[in-house]
Amino acid sequence: AKRPAAGGESDAADASGADDGSGPAAGTSLWRMRTTVADTPGSLAALCTVLARLDVDILTLQTHPLADGTVDEFLLRAPADLSARTLAHEVAAAGGRDTWTERADAHDLVDTPTRVLGLATRTALDAAELPLALRQLLGRCTLHSVPAVSITGRPTGEQAPVEGVLEETVMRLRDPHGGTLVVERPYLPFTPTEFARARALVELDARLGPRLPRGRDVLTLPEGNEITVRRADQRDLAAARAMHDRCSARTLGLRYHGPVGDADRYLDHLLSPRFGRTLAVQTASGRLVALGHLLWDGDETEVALMVEDDWQRRGIGSELLGRLVAMAEEAGCDSVYAVTQSSNTGMVAAMRALRLPLDYQIEEGTLVITARLASAHRPAGRTRPHEGSRPAER
Question: Which residues make Cβ contacts (< 8 Å) with residue 109, sequence separation at least 6?
């Protein structure tokens, strides 16, 4: 679905009034609607009267008090032939303003306290879940983690106050690990209630400190060697740097697309749960020999791999890539992209082996391969590498 414009209805939602199967009953559709009404007695009653006249059933209602009114957020079951434009027009006639609507599905039937508790539980188990939890809490939004210090060691000037900052369609939350979490939703202003919920999730993350799921898988390679695949974070920084030291200049160059001597600078960023999830491969002796990264790039997702020279061409890269893509699908991502060079035949082959629709783009001498995931619900848009993106190595 296209992103709806501020103060209007979703283009995709208005395109068809037919039942798309998202509603629980035949001949009906589920909608999410948000509108602002005056904070006076009877304003909500007038709105509900209009909805009843349209044969619209109110399934859930949340109120977000503001200084100059109240934002009412509804989950509605409406007749299938009721368009978003008609719904918004009737709501406006009843006193609603800045009305926004979009199609909903069965997942929206979960009440808000239950959904928030579920997101808190996921965040408590895995620090890398915080960016995803914020996205699911706030709807379609873009989240950027801006460190206080750049990869090259220079201060970025980004450090939000402890209590955070709310500026209509942008909120800035102080990252306890340093820097700022910037959340943007241009099509719909955030309410103080949403800001408080987001801040509570960030505070929970800060109190719990570094944490990772404990699961690990032991696999046997074709030649008989056993490897362990597990999650990794910044506590693996020393082992990752040692792996860098054992890698050839070609391997480092293919992975980072820059001066080989700068490779170590990126590791702290790549291993941070703020920027995504990392999988590590270690040998039976405990030596780390490969890393795979799933990186949250705004509202896009990048996959990147590096395998130590002596362990390449054994299927490790393909194994990591398959797991990263599965994690992306579980997180609800529509697509993933890899940035590499056409000469990196291992990464190109691993992407093809996913058996997913692929798009190839050449940008400034690098090859960007985008894979549309099975979980995608809308056509994948063009993807571009974010600034400082580095190509992957199988």
Answer: 24, 30, 59, 60, 75
